[in-house]
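Hi L., both proteins are below.
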Amino acid sequence: MTPTASLRQLADRVAAVLGPEGFTFAEGEGAVSSGGPFTNGFFVRGPLRIGLIVRGETLGLPVYETNKHNAGHDDIVRFLGHADDALLRWDPKAFRAFASDGSDPIAAFVHDLSRIILPALRTSPDAFAALVSSAHAARLRSWGL
């Protein structure tokens, strides 16, 4: 299966959770990098974008973007105080997302969206945007920037 076909299948599953919250999906662009061919797309609602990247049939790290800042799913759940509760994890050596409970990574992502991310967004979209900016700044500091 091509990365684009995989992205569409994954996006359909995520749309079941994000669509009712007012997000719409837009496909990004495909390209090739050191990790091989990939494609991406974004769920968009106002200034917030939730990005998916797919290499082959494998989900990469979802990213949250707002106010010209971005942060990975792992950083956001940690900043929300749910690092231990999140099912979707990132393996930087394998460059892939995986489910800590052994389930499908998209099911794990949908779980995290439903139980961690969306409750925070519903409480305060502005506070969530500030959290993305804080996580972004923390990541830059960890890189010495």
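That was the first. Here is the second:
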Amino acid sequence: MELKDYLPLIGVGVGWLLSEGSAFGKRSIERKRTVGKAISVLYFLCLEMIQLKMAQERFKNTSDDIKEWERLRQRSFEKYTVQDPEFFKSLTATVDAIGEYYPIEAYNLREIVNKYEFMKSKSLEKLTSSPALYMTTLSGYEAGFMAYQHKLELILRFLAFRQSKVIWFRIRLHFWRMRKQVPKGDVVFFQQVNGRKKGKCSESSVTNTANPPASEGENA
């Protein structure tokens, strides 16, 4: 067969490659656009959670009365969170859009959004009559809150890294600066919980070194 006999096949092949290349380019642009919008919405949500926790920690420093704590905690949900129901719809739409490209991250995001909405609507006022029970329950809620906040931050960084290394760096830098601004004693970020545990372990190690257990001769 001569070259001219292969020309139709070559033409079909080239046409298919051009079509696939064009479709790939459109999908890439659409993914960039979708992820970019998702980063904007999730970044806002993450900052809202951080500002909410910072406000609640600040309220704790103003009073030792747990009834006042709970009143201020409920007030913080009204003051520092978006009350517009359309915002929740936009979060849901964002999760669905992300699911087309990153299904595992979308599943985790859906859990974070649902748990966050639940925590905002949960009042512990009935438990204030029992301080011990209230403090135990509140500690559990706060630990869960920070865990979901940290999980959201990791997903946000994951999306930002795939979108743009510059955006990823700027987000990491912003969170690092916010952690540095947290007053000493306040626990706002999940990393601070790990830091406290390490600090306690270090203190325990120093104490044991300074006060070694008595030998059998000393006990006798």
